[in-house]
Design goal:
The chain is α/β, with parallel strands linked by helices. The protein is 42% helix and 19% strand. Helix 8 (142-148) crosses helix 14 (260-267), helix 10 (160-181) packs across helix 14 (260-267) and helix 12 packs across helix 13.
Amino acid sequence: MKKRKLFLKEIAKAFTIHPIVAILGPRQCGKTTLAKMFSNDTKNFPKENYFDLEDLNDLERLKLPQTTLSLLNGLIIIDEVQRRPDLFQTLRVLVDQPNNNKKFLILGSSSKKLLKQSSESLAGRIFYIELTPFSYEETKEMEKLWFRGGFPPSFLANSDDESSIWRKSYIKTFIEQDIPNFGFQIPSPQLRRFWMMLTHYHGNIFNASEIGNSLQLSYKTIQNYTDILINTFMIRKLQPWYENISKRQVKSPKIYFRDSGIFHLLLGATNRSSLLTNPKLGTSWEGFALEEIIRYHRADNFDCYFWATHSHAELDLIIFKNNKKLGFEFKYTDSPNLTKSMSIAMQDLKLDNLTLIYPGIKSFVLSDNIKAEGLQSYLLSNL
């Protein structure tokens, strides 16, 4: 297993300030492995300090959580914490005790929004880290990562066929077991149809009413399904940016699959040949590149937007970082060139710079503060 050094450093740094660190991310993205890697770097980590809340024995051990946890010292790991949200109040009591010598590393497969109890009871005591599946920064294998996605069992599989089989099983388990375990009572076939329909909206404006009419579901139901997939890290909803200009601007969000491998499986592209002939090929690459750029910049969701006007000027991604407004356009092409839309975006949005990201390897200037750069060279520029 690859040692995820950047995340290990982030955990160590967070513990210098906070007594509780939460690693959040989708199921099977490597949270447990990362936690065990961190515990291996911690001297004298006893086995009894690890709790897996999917293990009935560990659930029994935490029947009286304050009594059990108060007897332990040092690093304590609690896996799948969303199964016991009542523990957050106990953690607050324990870390607030004088001369506290406990550090809690808690792991969850849902977002902060679904773990809202922690933000209410642990304010000022907890630091959140989102663990994503593998990125190019960690793998240095672009084509393989794009096709298989970054989930470790999928990326590290012995073959593309084994990778596709794992992803198919993952989707089935996620829909039939994980979603009910999160407390959502949704018919599995219905959620799967909805998820598959989202492949047609990947990289496009999200229209809940249109999807609802197709599936004969209400607008509210579609919004609820979407929120579930967002809060379990399957889908990214990219919000529109509004600039103070006279032009009419798009106000609806865009939707993206966060893992290209999951997208390809639901799209029916089970091998590389079928992907290369799929009409969604360009959209697939653009979504993959967008996700990689967001991860590269360590950008929070509230720092990422797209921009579009009703007169067809648009920009795929805006990232606010270090008091700069960075613009990105993504094109699956061999010959990137300056477009009128990019010039309009540069002027109207007052961007610090705009980068056209494409699959090639060369970098070159297109105009003042606008350049074209290959995705690989961009991601390697500061490594």
